[in-house]
Description:
This protein has helices at residues 63-72, 78-94, 112-120, 132-136, 140-143, 175-185, 202-207, 224-232, 250-256, 261-269, and strands at 2-3, 15-19, 46-49, 55-57, 59-60, 102-106, 124-129, 146-148, 160-166, 186-197, 220-221, 236-249, 279-293.
Amino acid sequence: MQNRNGACPCCFGDGVLRYPTKIDNSLLTGKTYSSRKIPELMHYSYMECRTCRALFVDDLPDSDFLQSSYNEAEFVSSNDSLFAARTYFHELNRMSLLNTGKLLDIGCSDGSFISIVDSNSEMKVLGIEPSIQAINNSDPSVRLKIEHTVLEKFQGESEFDVLTCFQTVEHLSDLRGLLTKSHELLVDRGRLVLVCHDRLSLVNRILGQRSPIFDIEHLQILNKSAVKALLETNGFGEVRVKSISNTYPISYWLLLAPIPKFLKRFIDSRRHTRYLSWGIRIRVGNLLAVGRKIQD
């Protein structure tokens, strides 16, 4: 285990225990470290920052354990991944971030996002992903543009104009390492784009610990103030943070809903049927944050 000594990874504020550990080892499976699984609602002990109100795990699991867990994780759904990628492309395209240059997608899963960018822009794209099953489920046209690695071990190209990191910051044991490495990889005034959960959104405040953001994979859960502080205290300026809506299949939304597990298992077994594959756009508490690298 690694220890943060009670200090918030976003703003360095002091943390106080808010939610004790809730883990049943008998429920751990090959999907525990998979994206878009049926929520298990298990989590490590969460501290709450007194300053920015981020939740964070103080006694972190070993980084080698995490890397191994993600490497071996089952890949759940290319359809859900494609819906997410379309949402992110739409948001970044509206902000004119996908015109020309080089883009690196950190935690790119099956490469759906870089595939869309590659087909619809002049950008040169690259992705890194720790899950071998996710890479094996990528389209052959983009597979060679995905490197099987984690960010701290990435030794490839640099001087990227845009780095994207979608729903990945929650999973990192070294959150500030992400920002340091991003600063190294970006050109001067390049942009880092994060998408993360907002623990203070209305739906998450209503659901409390029944919200799927309470997850053994999530080592920190941010909010608007926390993600803004994270970027600004790590060499990024002109920070913009906004709430976004997401489009996902009906099956995905039902699997996240607080309904009985036997219904979720039934839905999961039929998630690719016609009617459960229809996309619906809902605002459920996700944030998009963009910061520009301040020149060294």
